Structure prediction request, 317 residues.
Amino acid sequence: MELTPLKYFRAIAAAGHMTRAARSLGITQPALSAVVRKLEAEVGTELLHRTGRGVEPTDAGRVLLQHAEEAIRAAEGGVKAVRELMNLERGSIRVGGGATATTYLLPPVVSGVRKKYPGLRFFVREAGSAQVAAAVGSGELDLGIITLPVPSASADELLVTPLVMDELRLISPAGHPLRNRAGWVERTYSPGKRGTKVSKPKALPGVFSWKELAGEPFVAFEAGTAVRGIIDDAARAAGVTLNVVMELRSIESIKRMVAAGIGVGLVSRFALGEGEGLACGDRGLRRQLAIVRRRDRLPAAAISHFERALVETARGR
Prediction:
């Protein structure tokens, strides 16, 4: 049964008069009478009877009116919910990523989006790149932040948007020979109308070589993670076998273990201050972080907005 005839029937019951109801609806009285006849034919009985002052619902009409009210309210509620969702007044975003993404990249973006659209809810899952890609592919997550390349099992079904280039830097305990190795300051010079302009100085990290880490106690990420794979491959290419004494998943835990003197470690540049940590001088320890989502699904407005906010924020990192 269509909702428009039910709305017309509700208007007749409220007005108690066919002509007044037709006028309020902006249609002719014969057209409204035709709608009533069609409704009565559909339910198989009379829905209105005439009184001295107009019309009123029959017993069957009152039963239909009760259900019509419920149906109209439900439909109007559905339309309102969709409009709220499209206007980002409500909705949910399920996003996953590794330790770097969930600890350092997502919080400022989630905070900014929530301040603008407080009705949005977030579900954040921390997991390795392979697990995040699989969860996005299965529909458990709307978006994922992973280290490229995309795992082969998920490559065909995921759309990839490059996000930001990350670099792994070496941290060491206080008193370690590598701890106070100085970096350098980079200045950019550019010609201007009133002479040469010098940009704000940028502190760059010092460097280390893989040979310096031979035999050093090493606090590492868990084996099997994308970051651990990058580190192991680079060390192997330099002919160094790392002396891994501890494996952890959390970046903050690695930093605390290094600070406690357990060993040296490699963490994301996003976990460090400007110029902090040592870059690899032999071979850059870089990785491309990217956003992935299902290729065959059109994202909801909230998800599209959040993805754009992620990309825009990453440009400044």
Summary: DSSP finds nine helices and 16 strands in the chain. The longest helix spans residues 59-86.
